Amino acid sequence: MRPSVKELLGVDAAGQEVIVKGWVRTKRQTKSAAFVEVNDGSCMANIQCVFDAETAGKPEIASTLEKVSTGASVSVEGTLVPSPAAGQKAELRATGLQVIGEAPPDAYPLQKKAHSLEFLREIAHLRPRTNTFGAVARVRNRMAFAVHQFFQERGFSYIHTPIITASDAEGAGAMFQVTTLDLEKVASSGAVDYGYDFFGKPAFLTVSGQLNVETYCQALGRVYTFGPTFRAENSNTTRHLSEFWMIEPEVAFAGIEDNIDLARDFIHYLVQTALRDCAEDLAFFDARIQPGLIESLKSVASGSFSRMTYTEAVAELEKHKGVFEFKPYWGCDLQSEHEKFLTEKVVGGPLVVTDYPKDIKAFYMKQNDDEKTVAAMDVLVPRFGEIIGGSEREWRLPLLQKRIADMGLNLDSYWWYLDLRRFGSTPHAGFGLGFERLLLYVTGMTNIRDVIPFPRAPKLADF
RNA sequence: UCCCCUGUAGCUCAGCUGGCAGAGCAAGUGGCUGUUAACCACUGGGUCCGGUGUUCGAACCACCGCGGGGGAGCCA
Prior knowledge:
Layout: H1 5-8, E1 16-29, E2 33-39, E3 47-52, H2 53-57, H3 59-67, E4 73-82, E5 90-101, H4 117-121, H5 131-153, E6 157-158, E7 164-165, E8 177-178, H6 183-189, E9 203-205, H7 210-220, E10 222-230, E11 243-252, H8 256-277, H9 279-288, H10 293-300, E12 306-309, H11 310-318, H12 336-346, E13 351-357, E14 373-381, E15 385-392, H13 397-406, H14 415-422, E16 428-434, H15 435-443
Parallel strand pairs: 3-5, 6-10, 12-13
Antiparallel strand pairs: 1-2, 1-4, 2-3, 4-5, 7-9, 8-9, 10-11, 11-16, 13-14, 14-15, 15-16
Helix pairs in contact: 5-8, 5-9, 5-15, 8-10
The structure holds one RNA strand of 76 nucleotides.
């Protein structure tokens, strides 16, 4: 394959004859030379293609140069040479030029200037051509691969849990219903008979792969899911999407301490990978999006995570309750202001908070002997707050049954989940990580709609 | 769903107490001996989000609607 710009800029420039294909970012012309910067998305950097006066003066080149504008796709032939000017090590001394697709400047929305992220959201089909969104896409790709690398290197199996689920028993939030019923007819008939629906009963898009992945955990031991997840909540924030990607590992014969170790190693691995393999893109985010980003990432890339129980955390927060909008008390859900205070001000680094009150956590979490708390663990990081939430699971049948009943859930609809506790049950644990939230943390971007190519949110399903 | 802010040129915004629609950048044209957020000069560019009302007069005030942003809640 023809070398990418990234590859060309990575070799010693020694007069090799090459062809560069990509999209023009900017063109500068003087009497003595024309400079066309070409980007092909392989890296942040452009390659500068230089047409000297003689070349630029040839009629066919001159007329083609007139059609070169920001956004146009081009093919440039020339030789790769060390650059005589500052700003780039190598450049292309151009001998030939073709415009593949023009981008008329009076109509092309992207200019060679900074645009607001809000404006770029309105042209989601063109925004990957900008520095910021190109960088986000490259980091997203690398992080997705790193997720698989991390688990595969540790003997985990990737389990494809279903997108469509026939039970609404997962309890993790509002669900999108999936149906082939004709809603117009349903509306006029005044009644719904799910016997006529595609699955013969109500069906929904999944809100979590956890309950399903636990079944394979109880067979393969170390498993994980990484797939699209859907929430129909009317959430309109910089941290929520209606469609997002979630990572959920689950390990058999494991307790909460194993879970915490795994989560810590996972964060270490992802952040180290980003710092090593996305250095150019992170440098851009550090300079333009989130000053101090790289320093902040380096501080969590290795080393231990502090530990604190929920009870200790609340005691710590109560010492400073004057600074909070929401007053902390034992039994309250930790607000994002509380989480940030704990990780940034109290411990000054990553923090794992464990043993939350059972009443604010999900039914499947393992109950502690104190009968008040569950073996839950949240990982908090500076600048962001909670990035991972997980727990040891309740693996004892009677206790799980009682918990489901106490929370007013329907035992029958959990029959297969309960079977896992009836037959060869094991202590097991796992956690969940929202992939886009990881990307917010790693890139320093602040709106979750800017770290997924095509965001879905209430009243937002364009493109 | 609630609270706050906001909508003016392609983009980012200013527009005072209601009195002729503005700037920077972008674009076009010309200039410039290697530029790199190029530079210099000139030029073109408007449904002031939509509707209704108040007024001699509305970008500006009031009401309704639509769009965008931020925060909260829910959560990953």
